[in-house]
Structure formats: structure tokens, C-alpha cells
Write a structure and sequence with these properties.
Number of domains: 2
Oligomer: single chain
Largest sheet: 6 strands, mixed, barrel
Number of strands: 12
Order of helices and strands: HHEEHEEHEHEHEEEHEHEHEHHHHHHH
Strand order of the largest sheet: 3-4-9-6-8-7
Number of helices: 16
Helix content: 40-55%
Shape: elongated
Distance between the termini: 31 Å
């Protein structure tokens, strides 16, 4: 029976190719827009380090503007001041910890004549093991390099290919901010995306240098900086001593049970700062796992949610148009339906045939929607070519492709319920009368 219904569906589609094509395109456009936005959203919300989720924590100290309400988690600063980041690093309470921030600089390999700008990250040596950064050559710099503000650098695979042809460059030198930096390590291709340690930082990172070195040499900062009070003085040192928040801080604990103890340590530090006249807001420090931090950031930034809602509304509009097209298509076949009814076909059988025909159109629309979605994502990739983040979040995986087809079929079936009911409810006499 299913094969016969599919045969009838194919014949019905061939008899009304324009209406069938219009419905398939309408479904495809709605599906394509929704799946494109959904793909980007899903890619951005995935946890690239699930094995470390219960051990890595983003630290928040509530050292913000005391004039803002203290009972709203959104008013808690996302980042730390330079002073607080250094203080937490000195304590060394966690198994591993790293303060960090995004940087940019002019780079030139030794002996090269044409410099160019690169983006990077200033961090502590623990950063690489905390986030499972894989090394192709060498390794991270030593702890004394952090303490002594040494001029050392770890290169991303892409910049090592560009500067040294992909060869082992450990021990070679490059120029950053007109000073020589010694290469101590080269990373493998590392696609930690989304970049959970700093969601606000988007450019691909080519270089990694010690946090203390970047602060001393006054590297250009990349990322957000928020100052809730005036900087007390002029120059870089005054900025470092200010209440401006611009440092990300992550810790790795040896066991998830230590989370409560570390939070108590943060509260103790905050109370000490209160005695010094700082941290004037109510005590509300926090630490988040990778999953928790992702949800927290998404809760604060609702832009992607709004975009998904808009895409869903567009899909609904396309389905409403499909209902009208299906209604016109089914009601234009009254003569055919009258013959089937006169030959003994029941209303349920006609209703089923209509649903099968709609499912076939939906399947076609799903395939077409998959093509449209892929073209749209490739268009975004071309528009932002060179950004590895964009290349990652615009990849359609197999499960989403299957989901696209199933969603198209389900949407077509939902849109066909009323037209199928209208088309199957008539008697042979009424159908022949309406066909005249």
C-alpha cells in the first residue's frame, strides 16, 4: 500500500509541477535559514573539552561598580583586574592556574625584511596543559620564564608554516615589538573551538607569550576592557594599578570536590580587599565549569537566541505559504478525487495519500534546503575567509543533515494536515460538482 501511495504521489506531483516546486522551494528556504542559524548556534555551544569540564573553572571576583545592583549575576564582572589576577597567581592555590589576555604585535622572523601583524595570547605556562594544547615541536616555557619575564614564544602551526616552512623552529628567533623572542615550542593544528577560555576573543591566535612579559612590554591588548572608575594617574603602570577589568582567569583543580574550598579562598581574598577599601559590592564571587560558563555567557548575550527565534518565525511563514499552496493543489484535483471515491476509496485512504504526497514534497524540499543551507554557510565562510572560528562553526555535520531532512518532512506533514482533511472530506457527488 505504501508503494502504491508513493506511486500516486509521484503522479500527483508530475501533474502539478509548478505548485509542487513552489511548495518544495518554500519549505527549503525556511528549513535552510533555520538550520543555518541552528548549526552556528550548536557549534558555538559545544564543549570542546568535555573530559576537563569538572576540573577547569572560570573565576569571577565581584569587584565591579558598587552602584549597580548586587543581586543580579549579570552585574558580576566577567574578568579580573591586573592586581587581582597577580594576587591569585601568587597564592597558587589550585593545581594549575593562568591569567591571560589577548594581544597583537608586529612580527618579523630573524633576517626578514617585511614585518606583519599577528594576534596572540599572553598567558602562564600552565595554560597549555590546562587546555590540552598539543605540541608538534618543543613545549611550553618554564615557570621561571614567567617569573623572569623572559622573551620566549610558542608558535601556532599556521604561523610556523609561514615563517619556517613547517620545520622544527625551536631555538630560532622572531622579532616581536622590536625585540627578539626565542621559539620554545610549536603547536600542532589546534582547533579548540569555540575558544572557551575567552569567548570574547575571535581572531586566530598565532603566538603565545608569558603574561608577565606582555605586561612589562606593554603589548597591545585585544578584547574588552571595562573601567568603572577613573584611572588614578597617567601611563601604563597607572592602568595596571587601576580597577579596570580585562584579565581572564582560569584554574584547574585536582578534584571537583575542591571547588567549595577554592570558592572559600576567593571569598577570603575578597574580604581582605574589603578591609582595604576595595570590593565594595556584596560578596558574590563565582567559579564556573566550561559548560556553566558557556551557558552563563549565552544567558547574558541573548543575540543568538533572538536570531534563532527570527529564523523559526521565517520557517513558520514559509509553512503558512505551503498550506495555501497545498490547499490549492489538492482542491484542484476534485475530478480525480471523485473517481477514487466512486471506486471505493475511503476518506482515510485519500487523507493518507495526501500525506504521503506532502511527505515526498517535504523530502525534496529538505534536500533542496540542505543545499541552500550549505550554500549559505559557505557564503558566510567566504565573507569571513581566514577566520578559523568561522570555518568551524559553519560546518554541517551528518546528524544536522539528517535532521534537516526529517524537519522538512515533519514540517510538510504539519502543513498538509488541513489541506489533506479538506481534500478528502467530500463525497463523489460534491467533488464532481465542485470540479465543474
Amino acid at each position: 500500500m505504501l508503494r502504491y501511495n508513493i506511486f500516486l504521489a509521484a503522479r500527483g506531483i508530475r501533474r502539478h509541477p509548478i505548485l509542487s516546486a513552489l511548495m518544495a522551494v518554500a519549505v527549503a528556504l525556511g528549513i535552510a535559514m533555520f538550520m543555518s542559524i541552528f548549526t552556528i548556534s550548536q557549534s558555538m555551544s559545544k564543549n570542546p573539552l568535555p573530559q576537563k569540564n569538572d576540573f577547569l573553572y572560570r573565576v569571577q571576583l565581584d569587584a565591579g561598580d558598587p552602584n549597580r545592583p548586587g543581586d543580579d549575576p549579570e552585574n558580576r564582572p566577567h574578568q579580573l583586574t591586573y592586581m587581582d589576577a597577580l594576587a591569585l597567581m601568587r597564592e597558587g592555590w589550585a593545581l594549575r592556574q593562568s591569567a591571560m589576555f589577548g594581544i597583537s604585535a608586529i612580527i618579523r622572523p630573524e633576517g626578514a625584511e617585511v614585518p606583519f601583524e599577528v594576534f596572540g595570547r599572553a598567558a602562564y605556562s600552565d595554560f597549555f596543559s590546562m587546555f590540552d594544547a598539543p605540541f608538534k615541536y618543543g613545549g611550553p616555557w618554564s615557570d621561571p620564564a614567567d617569573e623572569n619575564r623572559e622573551r620566549v614564544v610558542v608558535l601556532a602551526a599556521s604561523i610556523n608554516d609561514q615563517l619556517f616552512g613547517g620545520e622544527d623552529s625551536v631555538g630560532e628567533h622572531i622579532t616581536l615589538k622590536e625585540e627578539l623572542f626565542r621559539v620554545v615550542g610549536v603547536l600542532e593544528e589546534w582547533n579548540l573551538l569555540p575558544r572557551v577560555y575567552d569567548y570574547e576573543w575571535s581572531p586566530t591566535e598565532d603566538t603565545f607569550i608569558p603574561f608577565t612579559t606582555a605586561a612589562e612590554m606593554e603589548f597591545d591588548r585585544r578584547g574588552s576592557t571595562n573601567c568603572w572608575q577613573s584611572i588614578p594617574g597617567q601611563g601604563h603602570q597607572a592602568f595596571l594599578a587601576s580597577e579596570c577589568i580585562w584579565i581572564q582567569f582560569w584554574v584547574e583543580l585536582s578534584d571537583p570536590s575542591e571547588r567549595t574550598s577554592y570558592l572559600s579562598f576567593l571569598d577570603s581574598y575578597a574580604n581582605q580587599q574589603k578591609e582595604l577599601g576595595r570590593f565594595q559590592r556584596p560578596l558574590d564571587n563565582a567559579m564556573h565549569t566550561i559548560d556553566e560558563w558557556s551557558k552563563y555567557i549565552r544567558a547574558v548575550d541573548e543575540g543568538i537566541v533572538v536570531t534563532i527565534i527570527i529564523a523559526l518565525l521565517f520557517l513558520i511563514v514559509c509553512l503558512i505559504n505551503s498550506i495555501g499552496l497545498l490547499l490549492a493543489k489538492f482542491l484542484s484535483r476534485n475530478s480525480e478525487l471523485a473517481v477514487h471515491r466512486a471506486m471505493g476509496a475511503s476518506r482515510v485512504q485519500l487523507f493518507t495519500r495526501f500525506l504521503v504526497e506532502s511527505a515526498c514534497i517535504g523530502f525534496t524540499g529538505g534536500l533542496l534546503g540542505l543545499v541552500f543551507a550549505w550554500l549559505g554557510l559557505m557564503g558566510i565562510r567566504v565573507l569571513f575567509r581566514g577566520e578559523s572560528v568561522v570555518a568551524h562553526v559553519t560546518q554541517l555535520d551528518f546528524s544536522l543533515a539528517v535532521g534537516t531532512i526529517l524537519l522538512a518532512i515533519a514540517a510538510s506533514l504539519a502543513a498538509s494536515l488541513y489541506p489533506a482533511w479538506r481534500g478528502s472530506r467530500g463525497t463523489p457527488a460534491s467533488l464532481l460538482r465542485d470540479a465543474k
